[in-house]
Each structure stands twice: as C-alpha cells, then as structure tokens.
Amino acid sequence: MEKRYKIFARVGVRNIISFNARPAKKKDVDIAEESAEIKVPRDDELKIPDKMPYILVIIDELADLMQTAPADVETAIARITQMARAAGIHIIVATQTPRADVITGVIKANIPSRIAFQVASKIDSRVILDENGADRLLGQGDMLYLPPSTSRLIRAQGVLVTDQEIHRIVEFVSAQSPPAFDQSMHEKLEAASTGTDDVTEEDEELVEKCLEIIRQEKRASTSLLQRRLRLGYTRAARIVDILEQRGILGPGEGAKPREILVDLDAAV
Asked: How far apart are CA 244 and CA 242, in angstroms?
C-alpha cells in the first residue's frame, strides 16, 4: 500500500483510477516486473509500472486470527480499510463465529458494507448488522445485505457456486500473473515455531512482564498471558516455554494452569 502511494506521489495522481487513466508515456522509466517481490523501496528505487492491478485481500476465518494476535490483526484491518481503497486494495473478511471479541467495534466501524447469512441468535445478528433479522433467515443462501452509508437492510439470495466453478475461477486468476511470495515472511514464521533457542532482548522484557503477572495472579497459563498482555497465542506460548525451560514453570497438563516451581515473591 505504501509503495503504491509513493508511486502516486511520484506520478502526481491521487488514486489508482487516475493512475491507470493517465496517458501513456515513452519508455523512459523503469517498468516493474510482475513477478517482482513487493517491498517498500526508497524513493530513488521506485519503478513506475504502466498499469496497476487491483488487489483483493481475503480473510477466510477471522476468528482464527483474532485468537492468535488480536491487537495486530485489528490494527492491520483498520489500516487497510481506512487507507488502502484509493490504492486499489480491498478486503473481504469472513467468519463463522460472529462474537463481539471476533468482530470488534474497531473492525465494524471500518467495514461499513456487511452481509449476514442465517445465524443462531439475535445477539449474533446484532454483532454483524447492529440489528436483529439474520436469526430469522431461512438458510441455503438467504442473506441480509447492509450497504455502505445506509442503515436499511436488503434481503438477497446468494448463488450456489460449484467446486468446478471455483476451480475455473482460481485457474483464471492464477493465469493473470505469476505468484510472488515474500520469503522473509516465511522465514519469520518458521523461526517463530522453532523452540526457544534464541531469546532476544525483547523476549527478556516480555518475560519480566509475564513473571510479574504470574506473581500477582498466583497462577500461570498461556491464556492468562494472552488476556493480560494482549499477546498472540504463538508469542504467549513461547514465553511459557521459556519459563518452563528455565525451571520456573512445570510442564503443561492439558487445560490446567502450569505449576509454579519457584517462589516469585521471594525473588522480588
């Protein structure tokens, strides 16, 4: 997104529509390769493409992300929805768990256009649409649509999309441009899942905060640290593993809190 805004500033346009509608120029500027890895470059490294494609970000199950890193996910969705439309980046967020801790107020405030299929209760309907109605739908694609800039619901029928149609759509989209993956992101994800060998200074600061919470609560669990420090599951579990490795906490026993093996009050 930020790379696109830098390109807009260089060319002198406000949005993707103006960028793609500008008259073609001579080939006196570097053209970005379609397969180039997306980075935020310095101004002198910008490559100006002839046209800029639209990007659609799809989150298939928001609840899974909100359980892992709620603060980061909420901030990222808010930033994309607030700033990315002019850059040609749009987002579709879906969930089968319409709870208030999944579809937060910040997320709802930044996604004015919503669709609700049949839900189990009036509460679920209000979480999605801010009013009742989705609990009385008939299923089988029966839905309520809330357009932007209005509070009037529109009832509609969703179409059935077969597996064969989905495969054809995916093949068509895949043929438009070769895939481009950010390898550094994969390396970070792999590093996050490989034990606790390399403890950073940031980890040490977080360990101290977690120890203080454990001392106050007289109990220790991954969910407790997630809730008190608004950590993602992976990070909270990593800190718990570090504390276990150092002999401060006992091994996990299912859903039970970890045993505290040292007197934290005496250590203060």
From this structure: 5
